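Usage example:
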Amino acid sequence: VSGDIYPKLPLSLSEYEELAGSVLDKPAYDYYRSGANDEITLAENLQAYKRIQLYPRILVDVEKRDLTTTVLGQEISMPIMIAPTAFHKMACPSGEIATAQAAEKNQTLMVLSSLSTTTPEEVAASTSGPLWFQLYIYKDRDLTKRVIHRVEELGYKALCITVDAPLLGRRERDVRNTFSLPKGLTIATVGDYLEKAMAENAKNSSLNVYFTNLLDQSVTWRDVEWIRSISELPIILKGVHRTDDAIRAVEHGFDGIVVSNHGGRQLDTVPATINLLPSISDAVNGRLEIFLDGGIRRGTDVIKALALGARAVLIGRPILWGLAVGGYEGASAVLRLIRDETDLAMALCGISNVSEATKDLIGYRTA
Amino acid sequence: VSGDIYPKLPLSLSEYEELAGSVLDKPAYDYYRSGANDEITLAENLQAYKRIQLYPRILVDVEKRDLTTTVLGQEISMPIMIAPTAFHKMACPSGEIATAQAAEKNQTLMVLSSLSTTTPEEVAASTSGPLWFQLYIYKDRDLTKRVIHRVEELGYKALCITVDAPLLGRRERDVRNTFSLPKGLTIATVGDYLEKAMAENAKNSSLNVYFTNLLDQSVTWRDVEWIRSISELPIILKGVHRTDDAIRAVEHGFDGIVVSNHGGRQLDTVPATINLLPSISDAVNGRLEIFLDGGIRRGTDVIKALALGARAVLIGRPILWGLAVGGYEGASAVLRLIRDETDLAMALCGISNVSEATKDLIGYRTA
Amino acid sequence: VSGDIYPKLPLSLSEYEELAGSVLDKPAYDYYRSGANDEITLAENLQAYKRIQLYPRILVDVEKRDLTTTVLGQEISMPIMIAPTAFHKMACPSGEIATAQAAEKNQTLMVLSSLSTTTPEEVAASTSGPLWFQLYIYKDRDLTKRVIHRVEELGYKALCITVDAPLLGRRERDVRNTFSLPKGLTIATVGDYLEKAMAENAKNSSLNVYFTNLLDQSVTWRDVEWIRSISELPIILKGVHRTDDAIRAVEHGFDGIVVSNHGGRQLDTVPATINLLPSISDAVNGRLEIFLDGGIRRGTDVIKALALGARAVLIGRPILWGLAVGGYEGASAVLRLIRDETDLAMALCGISNVSEATKDLIGYRTA
Amino acid sequence: VSGDIYPKLPLSLSEYEELAGSVLDKPAYDYYRSGANDEITLAENLQAYKRIQLYPRILVDVEKRDLTTTVLGQEISMPIMIAPTAFHKMACPSGEIATAQAAEKNQTLMVLSSLSTTTPEEVAASTSGPLWFQLYIYKDRDLTKRVIHRVEELGYKALCITVDAPLLGRRERDVRNTFSLPKGLTIATVGDYLEKAMAENAKNSSLNVYFTNLLDQSVTWRDVEWIRSISELPIILKGVHRTDDAIRAVEHGFDGIVVSNHGGRQLDTVPATINLLPSISDAVNGRLEIFLDGGIRRGTDVIKALALGARAVLIGRPILWGLAVGGYEGASAVLRLIRDETDLAMALCGISNVSEATKDLIGYRTA
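Running the assembly step on the lines above writes:
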């Protein structure tokens, strides 16, 4: 993003956050930015990248850089996708449609959240770009099945099942703000269902009802196997922290995992995802595709994740900051900025395509 | 503690401390919060938990979580007890009785301090919940014996002998404040005895007299053996730091130890208790029960202590902040808050009862 | 620099920076001081020296200290040279001529930047001291060749080829300032060539044109070999980070390398140069001369670099601060100050000539 | 020091420093407190103790603690001596005499500095306590010999030869303040000699003349052997940093060493002395007595130094703060405070005499 084109726009993803903070309502901004409890993991997700050092190669022809890659066979123009995040209409009126179109413009893939404020139908209709769907497994398995079959028919290309949220992490800013969805917004995918549930349980907000009444805390490996049995879509487990769980995902034949801690919003004091990646990557040894989210704010962060074993990364909050700052244009600019940074980082690392990002580029600051 | 029930109450134990600081007199607040000398251990007790990382399991059925455990055979509803702390009447008029009733309400156990401002008799009469008694060994062994037999008869279920305080640690805030017990409050257990001693030694406050005149600096393993010989109660040694001392406690046949540094109030620059726990737990190898206090402020801290070998933890200062903020209600709310946090942390760790908190959940941040 | 001679002058290189910040225009100061992106490497270059500890020898005769050394056979009075930096006329009117004369006065060597605001001819005419020339390889190889032959004929004694800048690192301060060369200043070495290119490409500043149009992103080891084939001058590769690249430089028969990260201005989050030095020095094992720049601010820093394998160090920004503060006098004072500090550090380390700076002087602070 | 006796006095050595800073002239305060260059070693000397952790023993009879020890056969009442520091009359009018009497009152030993503002004769006359003399080796060996023989005859019991100051470290605060000895004060030991030298060299202050003209930068092991040949006194080398130099001190038959970095005033970025101690102690293995100075501010620091191999420690600046705050009374109070802290630390560590301070008491905080 050069000064010529967006003279007033932020120069980095963290400047987008700053600007977003000045345009969003406090409860919305807090909802987006907050982490669980003391926000230790939230901070660590970012901090960890500052302790990882790059060892660039010299005298390599980097005139032409190729950032394209494939994720589960889908070609995308860069190893950066849009992570599923909730409630895009809180950031701008066109909400998830703006996001989907920003993804399409930048030739990458959006993972639509189950907590979108736009229906999967509307999002699918707004873009010809590839979409994945982030899924929660509901207590009501018929509802779960109906959602899956809807997104399947709409052409979503994979299911990304969140496995780190049997209960909602406690974000004290939201409790303090008594956060609830602004008037007029709904959790669109299950809107009708929720309205009925809320009517039965009048004093609770839709978000409380969603998590307390809909989500199933008893989900096990058997249940995700059941999902596979009822859907042709590739399945990715999002929220893997442990090597043993990554191996189980391989053994159960899943297609991918997202090394994720839900942006530091679930269990506080879990490690930064980037620090979990190397041992998970070693254990998986190429048997499924590994994605990563959490703390990616720079092109150099992308390179580090690739070098340590991620096939691609996902960015969540920065997209929301882009939406808040400038809707579709803002989200597009964020994607373009992180792509430009990644392109430059590749050149300066002495690599000309993403497969050349290997472990020898990486070191750790010890003090 | 939901926003509905206590709309104005703190959302975390550290917010309780903040609020307590605004309602307590400075000398009282300082007495409670201070640590020895430079307060390095005081800070480290808290800081250490931030460097310990959790590795949660996924896809585990956590719909029903069971927090109950037993301590020396006593069932309690959660692995969190009330540590012995002094002078609860400085925090609220009903003092230790409020505390005991908060413990009972939350179905856990209170360890009554020898420095209580309420007699063991009054505390025992106020609750049907289980009580332990924290004991100092006095120079006057008859006095010591009388205290033991009193609490034995009152139904206290164990003696918790403090072994890290042959002398009182130097807390400079108290020296600066020339701290003494507020008028009307006494060290109730030995009130008569002290009055006599103070009369003989007119210029000293009861606290100085207590420590200088009553406490015995020559106590050794032989003396704690003597305690055992005169009491049927199980005995726990509180203030163990070293592996060799833990092994000696096993060899001498004691029932439990508390890995404790007296909340950072005795010898400054001793390690955080949570960092002492793993090697002590390995050495003890189940031959006695290990408890831990010092720095527990979050449900995740409780899980970390359990995973590293504690059977249960004790919280001290947070109870005082609860008492200061709202007496019995405040102390109850503190206990409920830390229980709720522990319950949520269990769910998000993928464990459904306390025995599943094992070492593989734990890692250490290295930088 | 004693208080007697320069009563108002700074006492340390960092005080020079502070004073320079108050006399330079913000865009110029920012251009000089900034690093890429989050400026993590910029800070780390300095910070790393604070974690390296010296172990001085006692009872050594240090009455006479000898700071002289040779670099590629050239004797200089101290193991400290002037690093190539751009645009000295932004700091003071006499620009690179002031710098060259400060180098001569202090009997050391200046490496003239390709981005000088003074022609190589003018600089060569202004000094009888030794000069090296920092070279970029241009897309236009004829231009490259012409520049090489010009400096060869002018008596420059070595070519220092920058290998860490296929593209310009992104310094956000410059983007924010929309930095361009002040009116009247030009990139003197290729001034005519640039004017033509700028005429064709009217809306871009000379700096953008320089990097985008002139610099070749496809340069490989073959191209630096080509440079060697067309010049008799010794060749040094500047911008080496990796041990394998250092070994390749040896194998290709180059004369020296500069362990450099371009002052933290290219790829952010690369390690501090001083931390790269030990393993590179071990790998090279004396087969070429190793120089180092980045973060040298104290005489003790110089000793550390020598002890860890550098033959000499280069300082960049401090020279600019000297120029800004006092032109030729300021740059001279900076050189004299760092020399005096190095001399004193030698005495206090118990070494009397630079070859005695060996690895046993060095330790690392671990926490 | 209880609140009763000194109601207005500081409660810790660092509070003494604070108070001294408010009563001393800035140049004097700066002279005392400053370290070389960036004051990294100055800070590290203190910081290092905060990373060293104590592992106290429990259930040890500590009713009677014995702090006495011997240094080179001299009994002192505690393992804490007074380090040689310059210019005590800048802190209070009675200068080194106040210090000597404070030492005597606390039954410990003072090492008189060569840079005292009181003659060795006056100091010796003022006290019946034991004295050592800190010696610089002058270019003029006759002067050196005369000084040695004077202090020998005066009953000083050892020579403590400073070996880390062939030149004076650069303390920028002093340069900024153009520090010189206040009018009326002289470097008393060599007063006449200096006056003559200053007359010949009119524009320099006595301190500059002292270091430039008197001190010999060519001193080697041969010269300290010469000292031994001309004196019966035991000889201690002060300023040892390296294991090899400590071993050489053993091999040359010296009586003791002081692990010292001159309070961070000589070569900046040398390690904290306490971190040098363990390997030096291992190497020396009891063959000479090891003392330590630098950063001792707490009783726990004393215990750590003893446990890691020091026979006794020396404190420097805190004595000056005591002198500044209250002359003889202040210096006495400082000694009594650090003794009381050491006594309490012993009790809380579970040791009852200094020889029980062993390595198993020590651990290191890793992050």
